[in-house]
Amino acid sequence: MIMQKKTKFIALLSAALLLTASTAIAEEDFWDWIGHGTVQGWRGVGVKPVDNKQYKEECGSCHFAYQPGLLPEKSWEKLLTAAGLHDHFGEVADLDKETLQAIREYVLANSAEKSYYKIARKITIATEDGPAPLRITEVRYIKRKHNDIPAKMVKDNKDVKSLSYCNACHTKAEKGIFKEDTVSIPNYPDY
Amino acid sequence: MKKLHTLIFCLTLAAPAVALATPATDAEFAQFKKEGATTFSAENGKKNWSKEVTSKDGDKRSCTSCHDADLTKAGQHNKTKKVIDPMAPSVNADRYTDQKKIEKWFKRNCEWTWGRECTAQEKGDFLKFLMGGN
User: Fold this and answer.
1) B23-34 and B120-131 are packed helices; what angle lies between their axes, rounded to 10 degrees?
2) Distance CA B33, CA B121 (A)
3) Packing angle between helix B120-131 and helix B99-114, nearest 10 degrees?
4) How many helices (H) and strands (E) does chain B have?
5) B6-B10-B14 Cα angle (round to 5)
6) How many helices, marked H, and strands, marked E, lie in chain A?
7) Left, alpha or beta for B85 (phi > 0: left; psi -120 to 50: alpha)?
8) Radius of gyration over every alpha carbon of chain B, rounded to an integer in angstroms
9) How close, in Å, is residue A105 to chain B by CA atoms?
10) Distance between B36 CA and the closest CA of chain A, angstroms
11) What is the tens place of the pLDDT at every residue in A116-156?
12) Number of A–B residue contacts, CB under 8 Å
């Protein structure tokens, strides 16, 4: 009897521990976890977060480190060449040969069409035909998603300026999450 | 004992004021000398830091387009608006610890700002100025 009681107590205690731990995780991370396709067979909702230190450092030292899934392969192929980076939208972004090679490989292996994340799929479809867009903001799907936002909130908003600054409004952009409920437009708290 | 403490305290205060050489900066200066430069002047570096050059697009550019004139303050990329950490090693210990990184940024930034690569002399002057030397 005593033995049984003890077993029961331990069982209850472990159950309680498991429960408290998992509710905490569930509240914080459950949807991120689901959203990032950790569960086999689920389609991620956003875009795969950057998981390459070199890419994050080299590209992210000047601008938001755009996830490779935000453009198709044919776009990255044009952007990530020695000549392409020498005139990178008017900036000189030269990389040494080995670094460029490593970054190019990482990006091409993770471009939009290689991903099952929702945004990557949408971008793949939107760019299937026609010339390769060089800017993410030129992608039809991205344009459509933002076309109801008035200019005063983006272009004429001194803390935003352009759609290129993803993380000016998308508070979880770095995690690859661009859902509407994670948007906070500077100077327009009620939008 | 108290005297020793005072001495240590004073040294701690004085430390940021001297140029903070690293193996990377030593290697850089050695390289610049190999390329023909002899002495380096922080004063010239400072002058060049704010020297304006008109780009092929017609706008005026200088180092201070993106970096602050005050090296202990953060700058801002003129296009992407990304914050650029202070250049002074006295407030940003990461600076000038990696020779490859120093060369990468000299190459990119000289080309963007002045439309050409900097000479060994110019780079040496810059580096001396940036490190906080006189």
Assistant:
1) 150
2) 8
3) 110
4) 5, 4
5) 170
6) 8, 0
7) beta
8) 16
9) 21
10) 24
11) 899 999 999 999 999 999 999 999 999 999 999 999 999 99
12) 31
Label residues A1-11 b or e (16+ Cβ within 10 Å = b).
eeeeeeeeeee
Residue of B81, B100, B112 with shortest CB distance to A165: B81
Smallest CA–CA distance, residue B10 to chain A, in Å, is 36
Residue whose token pair is 């795969």: A48
Q: Which residues of B touch A161 (CB under 8 A)?
A: 81
Q: Which amino acid belongs to residue A102?
A: A
Question: Can you tell me the distance from the alpha carbon of A184 to that of B53, in angstroms, rounded to the nearest whole number?
Answer: 39
Question: CA B98 to CA B34: how far, in whole Å?
Answer: 19
Q: Is B104 on the interface with A (CB under 8 A)?
A: yes
Q: Is the pLDDT reported for residue A28 higher than 50? A: no
List, for residues A156-189, the tens digit of each pLDDT value: 999 999 999 999 999 999 999 999 999 999 999 8
Residues of A in contact with B108 (CB under 8 A): 92-94
Residue B43, pLDDT above cutoff 70: yes
For residues B127 and B42, what is the distance between their CA atoms, to the nearest angstrom?
8
CB of A165 closer than 8 Å to CB of A136:
no
Q: Is A130 on the interface with B (CB under 8 A)?
A: no
Phi, psi (degrees; rounded to nearest 5) at A91: -105, 155
Instruction: Report residue A114: phi and psi, to 5°.
Output: -95, 5
List the single residue in A64, A94, A161 with the smallest CB-CB distance to B107: A94
